[in-house]
Sequence to fold (663 residues):
Amino acid sequence: MRTTRGILAVAVALGMSVWVLDAVLDAMFFYEGTPFVALLLTDIPAHELYIRIVIMVVFVAAGAVTARQADQMRERERETTLFRRLVDEATDSVFLMDPTTGTIEDVNRTASNVLGYDRSTLVGMSVAEINPEFADPNEFKEFLDSPEGRELEYYETAHVRADGTTVPVEISASDVDIDGRRYRVAIARNISERKERERRITHYKQAVESSRDQLAAIDSELQFLFANEAYRSFHGIEAEMVHGRTLDSVLDDREFRTVEPHLGDALAGEQVQFEMTRTHAGEDDRVLDVRYWPLRDADGAIQGVGASLRDVTDHREMVEDLRRARERYESLFDSIRDAILVADTDRRIVDCNPAFTELFGYSLDEIEGKPTAAICESDDEFQAMGESLSQHLEDPTFVQTVRYEKQSGQVFPGETNVFYLRDRDGEITGFIGLIRDVSDRRARITQIQTIDRVLRHNLNNALTVILGNADSIADATTADPRESAERIIRTGEQLRATVEKEREITSFLAESRPTVQRDAVAVVESVVADLREQYPTAELTVDLPTEQPVLTVEYLDRAIEELVENAVTHSDQSTPTITITVTTDDGIVEINVADDGPGIPEMERQVLTGTQDIEPLFHGRGIGLWLVHLIVQHSDGQLSFATNDPRGSVVTVRLPTPDERTE
Fold:
């Protein structure tokens, strides 16, 4: 507006200037004697006035036209600037091309950013250079000249970025006339995210279609939105007949009445699971595990119901067959002394006998449905048994020793005879495992080997010492026969102690040692009273409750005595200090023997916890600790070792209480 007024003012000023100039010329050359002011304003000749008015009108009209043209030009510039800004700020790439050559004439900022080129670089390039569908620009020109190229307005392709990567794009193209010249405008939208979603959807569809479970979805009007191949096959529905079909047209009246209330619960927002019998299109009735869940839109509103149906007929029949077999052979099943475990093909526990409960401490209710990994010491043991099951498919049975873990946490080797359960067609329907605790057998083997190693070593050493000193005395080659005799006596006593401990172990392993209820407090008090008389220089203290019943074998006092005596005899203190405490934690009794000595050597700790075999160099001390380990092991207990503060060792014996075992 300001420019328009300025142009008009200039036009008027020019007209007035001509008016004044004409008056000056008239006064000087044509009307001498007539005052200039009169010729300018009052005494203007008629023809001069007419000429001046015409000139004034011409100037004003010219100014008005010029002002209008200026306004129009400014408006076009503003629109052009605004349009350019809008194009540059657009989220889609915009290309302006020569429709005959495919040369890029202009691009917006988004195109430069997406492709990784400067605008100046893109301008002048052929579209073929960013489109991998064309090997060279000539192919693209031929495409543009073809009927298909002239008519194609919407298509998908890919663009090549400056770094060589490609981006999928959706092209919308059209021809436009700009200042009398024809251009082709192409708008390219990056559809990478859409393509990725489509890829995921395709994968989901493939997974859903290939699922062995029947999967379907219905809307709030109970019309099918989707049904996978398993669902269609079960109900005998053609794929093209699914969409829009109602659920009640697929089910019979009885089946629909069964599912209707569950559908209502799912439409109300609940997740539902139930079993029902449904008729197969080509077979007999099948038992299905059915799960419904609400389908929600982006705002959380429920739009329908999703359904998953799994055929559990064979599994139920297998379980029922196993249970009927158990009923037929229940007496035999329950009377077998070996632990029996029955599992399905997924290696989930189905049944067990009383011997299993007695051995592992679990009742059937506690472990039914759990994987057999729950009773294995580690995943490695579980995986190893799985590999063996696969390797012996053609065998009726096989034997494998597995390290199992009881409910109490005790680990033991179990010799497992595995039998395959098969149906009439020979298909495997489950497994039966007969588990026998071979801890005693292994302990006896170890005991025999230990006796052989230890006694042979110690006996040879002792006899060497005894015979050597005896020869010295007999030959009168020793200066002090008494010292040699004392050495013979000490060696003989050590050998006798070793033999006595070995005989204790032999006696312990030779017979069955059932657990009995004993008062741990009374056992500790009795042992400490005897050892105080035997070792008067030792300071033996106790921290005991009034009483504390435990389940243990009869040899518990011998284990406590060995631990306390070991701490006293191997102490490096002038007055050894040993503290014995009894505590209870969550149904487990802990008997702690703490000393202030030099600590138990690493090799003997391993003997104590059962992780190291007895070696000849352990002598009597190692055998005594091994006896402690065997007593605790047969009591279904656990042994652990820790360092005392500030020095010494703490050995902990953990034993179950009668209440804990009853539970």
Q: What stands out?
A: Confidence is low (pLDDT under 50) at residues 616-620. Residues 46-89 form the longest helix (44 residues).
